[in-house]
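Message: I would value a second opinion on how I read folds in token form. Give me a protein, with the fold worked out from its sequence. Write it directly below this note and I will take it from there.
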Amino acid sequence: MQYNDSNTTHRQQPHLVVFRDQSAGLRFLTRSTRTSEHTTTWEDGNIYPVIEVDLSSAAHLAKARGDAADRHPELAGLAA
């Protein structure tokens, strides 16, 4: 009997995408199987699919306190 795992033939491979937090204006470059028709240019000059999201903690902090990059220098450069 031959083993045939149909799930392995249909799995999408992760690729680089940008998740953009709509509320906080932050962007994160990461790997995902999701894709989008919309694209954005990242800091490295490459164009990646962009997926719009509302990340709860970043969105709430940005709304409550203003621009997150001002308060968190490590986030500078991630803003859209």
Remarks:
- Residues 25 and 79 are 5 Å apart (CA to CA).
- The radius of gyration is 17 Å.
- Strands lie at 15-21, 27-32, 39-41, 47-53.
- The chain has a mean pLDDT of 75.
